[in-house]
């Protein structure tokens, strides 16, 4: 599942950040910010117009991400991981 598709207030774990193109600067920056495999992530809120940006919490840090940026992050929902 993509982070952009994750329902609000649902705990998930990052699987990977996918590059949209070779040497993807946005994907690299997301990894630098802490979007790495095994980290807990949650979508806290979405903006009023087109549900953009998304307010995302990873660890104790919150980020505002565009949906296109959040779509690069693959996650597993906690219920799926334990099933």
Account of the protein in words:
Keywords: Iron. With 83 residues, this protein is an alpha+beta fold. The mean pLDDT is 92. The longest helix has 9 residues. A five-stranded antiparallel sheet has the order 4-3-2-1-5. A hairpin with a 2-residue loop joins strand 3 and strand 4.
Distance between the termini: 15 Å
CATH superfamily: Ferrous iron transport protein A (FeoA)
Task: Report the biggest beta sheet as strand number plus sense, adding barrel if it closes.
Answer: 5 strands, antiparallel
Number of strands: 5
Shape summary: globular
Strand order of the largest sheet: 4-3-2-1-5
Q: What is the residue-mean pLDDT, rounded to a whole number?
A: 92
| Oligomeric category | single chain
CATH class reads: Mainly Beta
GO molecular function: transition metal ion binding
Protein name: Ferrous iron transporter FeoA-like domain-containing protein
Domain Ferrous iron transporter FeoA-like: 1-77
Pfam families: FeoA
What is the fold's blueprint, element by element?
Blueprint: E1 12-17, H1 25-33, E2 40-49, E3 52-58, E4 61-65, H2 67-70, E5 73-77, H3 78-82
Antiparallel strand pairs: 1-2, 1-5, 2-3, 3-4
Keywords: Iron
Domain Ferrous iron transporter FeoA-like: 1-77
GO molecular function, one term: transition metal ion binding
């Amino acid at each position: 599942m993509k982070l952009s598709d994750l329902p609000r207030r649902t705990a998930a774990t990052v699987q990977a950040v996918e590059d949209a193109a070779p040497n993807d600067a946005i994907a690299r920056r997301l990894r630098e910010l802490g979007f790495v495999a095994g980290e807990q992530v949650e979508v806290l809120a979405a903006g009023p117009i087109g549900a953009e940006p998304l307010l995302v919490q990873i660890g104790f840090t919150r980020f505002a991400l565009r949906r296109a940026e959040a779509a690069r992050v693959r996650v597993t929902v906690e219920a799926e991981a334990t099933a």
